[in-house]
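Replying to the earlier thread about multi-chain prediction with a worked example.

Input:
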Amino acid sequence: MSTPTNALCASKSLEFEIIAADGRARATRLAFNSCKCFSPMFMPVGTQGSIKGLTSKQMEEVGCQMILGNTYHLENRPGSSLLQHLGGLSTFVDWNRSSLTDSGGFQMVSLLDLADISEKGVSFQSPIDGKQMLLTPERSMRIQNRIGANVIMALDDVVSSVCLEAKRFEEATHRTLRWIDRCIAAHQRPSEQALFGIIQGGVDLRLRSTCIEEMNTRDAHLPGYAIGGLAGGEEKDAFCRVVAQCASKLPVNKPRYVMGVGYPLDLVVCSALGADLYDCVYPSRTARFGTALVPEGTLRLKTAAMAADYRPIDDTCDCLVCQKYSRAHLHAKITKEPHAASLLTYHNIRYQMRLCDEMRQAIISQQFQEFVQSFVRKQFPNNMVPEWLREGLSSAEIAV
Amino acid sequence: MGGIVWELDPRFAPADGESTARPGPRLGTLTTTPWDHPGPVGFPTPMALTYTRRGEPAHLTPDNVDLLPREARTFHVSLAHFMDHLGPDHVGNMPGGGRRYFGCRPTCMLVTARDPLTFDQDAKQSNTDAHTFVASPTGTTKITTDDYARWIEAIQPDAFVALADESPSWRDGVALKKTKQASARTEKWLARLLEKTKELPTRPSVFASLHGGADVQERRACAEGIVERHGTQLAGFAIGSMGAGETPGEHRQSLLRASIKPTPWDKPRYVAGLGAPLDVLDALESGVDLVEASFCHQCTTQGYALTFPVKPPPTTNGAGGLKKRKRCDGKDGDERHERVAEDEERVAEDEERVAEDGEEEDANRRLLTGGDAFKSNMWALAYRADKRPLLPGCECYTCERYMRAYVHHLLQCHEMTAAVLLDIHNYFHFNKFMEAAREAIGAGTFAEFAAFHRERAARMDGDDET
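Result:
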């Protein structure tokens, strides 16, 4: 029999405070049992228990506060029971700061060929060994309870945001709400692990609104909220509208996590619109293909011109890669030596951490608007700012 | 800048009235002046040079290299890895000089033409007077002395081994004529390289490569000739074509000694290709001062962790440590215990039982899971739930922070981090092994040290002849 959670338990798992606000943007503090985090905050993704090629010590050194582990993959290998036996995720991967596991819901979208969704849950066929796996809200909670992350995500019925069937979105929105109640009931460790509810509804603002209203009725049991179902290829202006709407309607005193975001520019826009937490594989993945994140956007190290460019990736960056290596050196090795991928991943993650730091400082010193304008100018010289960006930021009352 | 300086520890110098030191293992100090250090930096020898790919450790970023013993920052660099379309200027044009091209900044860099791990593929019979071949990332590439000199000028190493015509020492039927031809070519190339590099501002030290194939006479003749004609310009000697299939033990050592004997006792000897622990013992016994640690890289890429004890367990009574009841040298552990006070004895016995059981169980498991006397196969499912570090008692970063189950998991998931954690452990451990060898040489107990490792390996790997 599951233990009913109550507001007191849920509030013990996470203490949330808004330190400063500038426009809609917030600088916040999230205090978990083991440590504190500060937002805006980007979470690198360590799907299978590691951030490609980097040690925990290196993750600490680049300023990472929270990492994301994926329930679907971790349950496959090594298995949540084994993880629990070994002391939980943090002991296993030697990470003393905070962590978050997602519910496994995203795999429904990315592995849709293998998924069969019903009211009961989602049945997958494992791509590794073809085994049938049924992920119910209860099972997702049980697995995440065993893994032991500070934040766990409710299992939601997520539909790809480029799906064309409106009825499917409607079905998913309502099912997500029914599932949230099952998650709340099944969650065995509410005073230790903060459960976040996920707002769905595709790009339909009406559905999103319904979802938020309904989710709000469970507010006492939800220490935080995520805006899900985005970062899947939808139009950028739709993306901004949804984030803007959700951020304005969600409770002010709870963290807002935009899942699957993302590109540095998206981090800035979403923060301007009132979101706090982000996760994405982009910085580490793009590193392995030879792309470095820089203030101007991206630097593709494989291009021929890089062979004779002896400057560091980014002369404003303080990371060890920019202190010790030239673009030329990295150009010669990228995609040929694994060590080069680690170097680029290190830089890219440091870039994201510094970006979040800068946003936080700008919000605290009430200069966020200037920060955003300066950031956008560097990414779009000659004033060629895309329309979606202009509109998105204008709803945050920032002119570019 | 200014190459390397090597000094023999005076205890191993020739006795008064003798012109040569006694053969065998010896201690020394290798000193360099790295470009980013205010003064010279010294390292004790014998020492193992870290394997690199394109000048840097394959899986380790500079901060991870800093987690290793300081001797690990001496690198062996293969030109073969650089032979792509970019050419030497790509490195040489680095502002401040080619040295600054490398982010890992070794305190000593020794350049050779070939990658010790691909020797078999490199060595070709079709070398000519003008060129030889190296196995590069883009295929087998031709290299001449001019090319080599350009690379040395670009990379700015502290030392390099002269280009050589290498032929494997095991190959029977290599006509003596071909062996002599190879030696002659090698000497010609050495002379040319000495000429071309002596005016370089960084003044790299030159190691001659000594050959002679599988023929002891030819090896001696080749070495004598090179010492006689070029000895004063050389900083050291590399014994070539080793680790290419020659029979370990006496045969190998006879070839090593034949090359080494004619060389001056006050210059260091380097050997590539003898990297596994028992091979290192062969090398040290013959008087080699520098080896390379590509063995660590190989173990890492195949998912092995080095888990052999670096030295024999302590023989004195005391707290902790593994004590063996069974010893192959005839000394009876029980006798030793009788000398200990009763209380201590009880504690020691308990510890010993646990440790011995642990070691024996571990040893058996190692063999069943695809490991051997020196290494454990971390892919094995046996380690799936093992909370212990790779090697209990090891003080490396990986062993202090991670468990076997995690390294195993990373391997199963094909995550790059597995190689990072294994490399950190393997290089750390291998350098501890070299440190133990140095200790034994200094204490005059190298024979026992070597015997311990050989007997242990023979016992564990089921050699029935012992």
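Residues 334 and 405 of chain B are 36 Å apart (CA to CA).

Feel free to reuse this layout for your own posts.
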